[in-house]
């Protein structure tokens, strides 16, 4: 997800040894990374849209079964790939074996993820204590669960994956691609099963230390797809998976909510990042974004060059936008409210997403120009 990861993968014609490459063999050139900026920006936009539309999906602002509700549910379902794609991008760029000791890796990653994790956990908990009256004991509970805010669980996922990255690099360097596919598939299957078992009353619950475990499969899968074939066949496969997974999530979650008479745990599971429908959509989105980005980079058209330059610029502050946008969104909703029914609620959510993105970008650009604040975005 981060600019530093891209530089590590692409510095001066870097090469990557494929899984199972014999010692002494000539390593294969590292795959092109020109598409990563586009993928990161698209995923960031999807995150903002999900948070803008989720109150409509969970019926806070819409009536179940209404046109606005079904529209919001379909839009939300079509964007559920965003967080898995972020995880897969990190795996794609960090798991290739390289000459870097574990202490060196941890030192670099702590500067990039550890400081923001601590600072923004404290900031969001303090903000919620002021905004909603969250108690100190409630704040401790949220931090211990790895969810101090609705989006900060991602920092705990990435931090946990970073802890095991040196080991996973060894695995990637020694295992065959077939073995890695089995490993990624089994890890995702266990993640999906873990989430499903959580539907049973009294079962489940995660902590800050274990948030990352269900996402190891996505992490390794990102490396496998990154080093996989490109072209029309992966694009067609990606489109099929993206459409089928998104449709299955929308129909499945909507139908379960209708049967239950409300948006409940069953519908939430279908929208979970580890449900089978979302796993399929995430794989599809990764393949589609990779092919789209590669084609843009290879195109000589002015519009393609403009899109590539814009994505390259927006990718820089995307991490900061992820961190601040929830505070901006909730503050705007508190100030201006939101239409409760009808098509206006759908349009209002889109408007909020656009404004939140612009304000968040502005805030991040300001923070990046302040010496000490720069470290947290």
Structural classification: mainly alpha
The string of secondary-structure elements, in order, is: HEEHHHHHHHHHHHHHH
Number of helices: 15
Tell me what portion of residues adopts beta-strand conformation.
under 5%
Low-pLDDT segments, ≥5 res: 1-27
Q: How many beta-strand runs?
A: 2
Pfam families: Acyl_transf_3 (PF01757)
Main location: membrane
GO molecular function: acyltransferase activity
Family: Belongs to the acyltransferase 3 family.
Report on this model:
This protein has 377 residues and is mainly alpha-helical. Helix content is 71%, strand content 1%. It has helices at 3-10, 36-57, 67-77, 82-94, 102-132, 136-145, 153-174, 177-197, 216-226, 232-260, 265-271, 276-298, 302-315, 318-336, 343-367, and strands at residues 15-16, 28-29. The longest helix has 31 residues, at 102-132. The radius of gyration is 21 Å and the shape is globular.
